[in-house]
Amino acid sequence: MTSAFDNAKKQLDQVTPFLGEEYARGLKLLRTPQKILSKKISIKLDNGKDKSFQAFRVQFNDARGPFKGGVRYHPNVSLDEVKALSFWMTVKCAVVGIHYGGSKGGIPVDPSTLSCGELKRLSFAYSDFVAPYIGPWQDVPAPDVNTDSQIMAWMLEAYEKKVGYQAPATFTGKPIELGGSQGRTEATGVGGVTVLKEYLKKCPTSPRLRGTRIAVQGIGNVGYWFAHFAQKEGFKVVAISDSKGGIYDPRGLDVDQVLREKEKNGRIKANITNEELLTLPVDVLVPAALENAITAQNAGRVKAKCVLEMANGPTTPEADEILAKRKIDVIPDVLANAGGVTVSYFEWAQNLSGYYWEKEEVLNKERKIMIKAFNDIYKMVNEKKVTYRQAAFILAVKRIIDAMMLRGRV
Ligand code: NAD
């Protein structure tokens, strides 16, 4: 398996020829995170024994604003992965033009093996570990894979206890009761559907919206809400999966019904594997689970006309090349799933002002930002004859290095 951070650096290399000589030093600096935090944290298990866990936080770049990025609990979390994810956060925030830098955190753990009390103690311990390095104007964590608003609530409590005052703007993705934003839960999915609609409007060869067949890998926060809103907009969601397998029906699925069944039985009534889902005869393929789903091994068999990356880093650089040669458009993660961080930014802004917005106001503001970001990138795709990913990176990397230059870091 290729290293996620190596993949991220390859993506950076690909845009280097499009930026002038004056960006060379900035590009070199952008290959290394500003700060890496790594520590063993320890909690008491329910059986009274102590257990330690490796914890990471990588603060990649803060030239455009405070560091921003989620915290992931997953057995495969590694420093390499956290570095890559923090780099992509930096790029993503610049793609949508919000004033944040990029960071990420994580613990290699399978949270399903912990009791609720153990999960709470682990989240408190993680927050304690990062407390000196986070804050509204320093670094703002949020949920990611296997972390949710409850975990943010625990982390906020631990942080506020430590600093001695209320600081809700330190975390986003909080429960509404603790200053979370209306619309944050569904924001990433809403943003993805907005981008897809814009793409389909612009591309004459793309399938028409109604009846467009979509396969979604992953039915977590991102995959579910994407599929839910896609169906509401008239798209036909024909396949969806969880980690154990997928369900496929060429006539179209009832996404909410699939989720209800998963919640009832603990799994999807699978009739295909996750690998099979990736090569189904669909118009749009939506990887919404984890990294490295589309690789050199399966990219040649992808039948979709467009890949909309709702997960972070689901396509390896080798697969990207294969898809480009086969004229399959890849709408990159740094654009497609940026709706989540956009509404996190709104949550932070609401916390700092103490004034809260209605859900429709939040989602309309989000859609406006996503449409602008798509169109900026679309313009560059046509002007420079590059892929959507290259266009997004050219635009974002230029913005980041411009900020580094203005600060005199370069
Ligand atoms: P989640 O934990 O809610 O859901 C993950 C889903 O992926 C689950 O349905 C799980 O069963 C499935 N899954 C896990 N391993 C799989 C495998 N090998 N094959 C197929 N499915 C598998 O996580 P999430 O918040 O939905 O995040 C999903 C992706 O989106 C991650 O890459 C995350 O970094 C990215 N992302 C999340 C947000 C957000 O707002 N939550 C925002 C931007 C990007």
Can you summarize this structure?
The chain has 14 helices and 11 strands.
How much beta, percentage-wise? 15-25%
Heterogens: nicotinamide-adenine-dinucleotide
The radius of gyration is 20 Å
So how many helices?
Answer: 14
Give the low-pLDDT segments.
none
Estimate the global geometry from the Cα principal axes: globular
Mean pLDDT: 96
> In this structure, how is the largest beta sheet organized?
6 strands, mixed
The beta-strand count equals 11
Share of residues in helices: 40-55%
Distance between the termini: 34 Å
* Elements, N to C (H/E): HHEEEHEHEHHEHEEHHEEHEHHHH
Structural class: alpha/beta
Query: Strand order within the widest sheet?
Result: 8-7-6-9-10-11
Question: What would you say this structure looks like, in words?
Answer:
This protein is an alpha/beta fold and 410 residues long. The chain contains 14 helices and eleven strands. It has helices at 4-15, 24-29, 79-95, 116-130, 149-163, 184-202, 221-232, 255-265, 274-278, 317-325, 333-336, 339-353, 359-384, 388-406; strands at residues 35-44, 50-61, 67-73, 102-107, 139-143, 213-217, 236-242, 245-248, 284-287, 306-308, 329-331. It has a six-stranded mixed β-sheet. A five-stranded mixed β-sheet has the order 1-2-4-3-5. A hairpin with a 2-residue loop joins strand 7 (236-242) and strand 8. Helix 1 runs parallel beside helix 3 (79-95). The protein is globular. The two termini are 34 Å apart. The mean pLDDT is 96. The structure holds nicotinamide-adenine-dinucleotide (NAD).
